Amino acid sequence: MITRADVEQAARRTAGLTRFTPVLEGDPENFPGPVWFKCEFMQHTGTFKARGALNRVLAAKERGEMKAGVGIVVASGGNAGLANAYAAAQLGVPATVFVPAAAPAVKVQKLKASGATVVQGGAEYAEAYQAAVKHARETGAIYCHAYDQPEIVAGAGVVGLELLDQTGGVDTVLVAVGGGGLMAGIAAAVEGRAKVVAVEPDTALTLNAALAAGAPVDVPVSGIAADSLGARRIGDIGFSVAVRVGVESVLVSDADIVQARSNLWADYRIVVEHGAAAAYAALTSGAYVPGVGERVGVILCGANTDPATL
């Protein structure tokens, strides 16, 4: 179980290795209360995932688990691979990344440029995951899950601690959900201080379906944000934290996400990937309507995208 103490430990462990990303206040005339964008798309490698990756690799090294010359392995549609490759390079260990065949070319190119060994194949994340687990078992590499390991989740949660510090506190945090690592980390970080609203594409509703079923379940995955919010099921950690904290789930459509992403560019000159725009889409579509004076933080979690598609 992940708690604020775990997130605070991650903050100390990764201090000086991650960026303290800025917040930008939204135009006040557009909202019933203050809205802040947490600009985590400015993090190393372009997403929040560098935080969890660094925390995971550092913790493994501290415990003496890292096997010399073997390093780490991760399965990723792109962002987690980039983050773990970056963490490995910063800390001097090898990295192997398994990615689905459909991973965006821009992310695959960045992975190869990072020095990681890239293995591409399979139709979706689940197949890359199976191949990576087999690689870890056969080689002794440290497996870094894209979203469902304690240190990965705790590292991601540092975003929430920073948001509270930078704003003086918020009432609500809107965060996009795929596998649920970022949501769980933030929910643990702000527990008792703010509520968390999980924003999911209606074509990949991992948390929403799990809450309805009472447990994580497989869901069909498609849609414009599937490259970053394309997990087939919510992680066990994400589900347990969501239930403990009382995380709400709201759904947005592909059209909502596209419009929110376009609005971020038009209004703020912010370029994010579709998965990151999902959080803002909750506001622009009316899927989540804040009360008068409600203080809202919107996590803009990644920017590994093609600006030409704006």
Poorly predicted parts:
none
Number of helices: 11
Strand residue content: 5-15%
User: How confident is the prediction overall: mean pLDDT?
Assistant: 94
Structural class: alpha/beta
* Biggest sheet character: 6 strands, mixed
Strand order, main sheet: write it out. Answer: 1-2-10-7-8-9
> Cα distance, first to last residue?
39 Å
What would you report as the Rg, rounded to the nearest angstrom?
A: 18 Å
What percent of the residues sit in helical stretches (DSSP H or I)? Answer: 40-55%
Order of helices and strands: HEEHEHEHEHEHEHEHHEHHE
Number of strands: 10
Shape: globular
What is the chains' assembly state?
A: single chain
Describe this structure in words.
With 310 residues, the protein is of the alpha/beta class. The protein has eleven helices and ten strands.
Which characteristics define this entry?
single chain, alpha/beta, 310 residues, 4-stranded parallel β-sheet, 10 strands
Which helices and strands appear, and what pairs or packs with what?
Elements: H1 4-14, E1 23-25, E2 35-39, H2 49-62, E3 72-75, H3 79-91, E4 95-99, H4 105-113, E5 117-120, H5 125-139, E6 142-143, H6 150-167, E7 172-176, H7 181-190, E8 195-201, H8 206-213, H9 236-245, E9 248-252, H10 254-268, H11 274-284, E10 296-300
Parallel strand pairs: 2-10, 3-4, 3-6, 4-5, 7-8, 7-10, 8-9
Antiparallel strand pairs: 1-2
